């Protein structure tokens, strides 16, 4: 097996310096994080341009799927439309269309 090292960086409030450090100084082959879709999309170009794999544990925006990423941007959570469809299928009551929600609201 391969040896794996973990280096934790604080990316708050701006992930740029952490990305620069991990890519330019340390030379990591992959970065786990960020958690938010918006931040994943913000830093994706930096990772793609350097050939660094970017793995988000929770980015669900469909825009992540549409990235021209050379196979470098991954996520472990299903996109919003897949998660919503699966939740609707598992709902005990039929979905209703009220105020734009696809799941029924139980008061």
Give a short overview.
With 107 residues, the chain is mostly helical.
Q: What's the structural blueprint in terms of helices and strands?
A:
Elements: H1 15-26, E1 30-32, H2 37-50, E2 53-56, H3 62-65, E3 73-75, H4 80-90
The helix content is 25-40%
* Class from secondary-structure proportions: mainly alpha
Overall geometry comes to elongated
What is the alpha-carbon Rg in Å?
18 Å
Give the strand line-up of the largest sheet: 1-2-3
Number of strands: 3
Number of helices: 4
Write the H/E string, N to C. HEHEHEH
**What does the average pLDDT come to?**
84
Biggest β-sheet description: 3 strands, parallel
Task: Determine the N-to-C terminus distance.
Answer: 52 Å
This entry's quaternary arrangement is single chain
The poorly predicted ranges are 101-107
Relative strand content: 5-15%
Question: What does this molecule look like?
Answer:
The structure is a single chain. With 107 residues, this protein is mainly alpha-helical. Helix content is 38%, strand content 9%. The chain has 4 helices and 3 strands. The chain has helices at residues 15-26, 37-50, 62-65, 80-90, and strands spanning 30-32, 53-56, 73-75. Strand 1, helix 2 (37-50) and strand 2 (53-56) form a beta-alpha-beta unit. Helix 1 (15-26) packs parallel to helix 2. The protein is elongated, with a radius of gyration of 18 Å. The N and C termini lie far apart (52 Å). Residues 101-107 have low confidence and may be disordered.
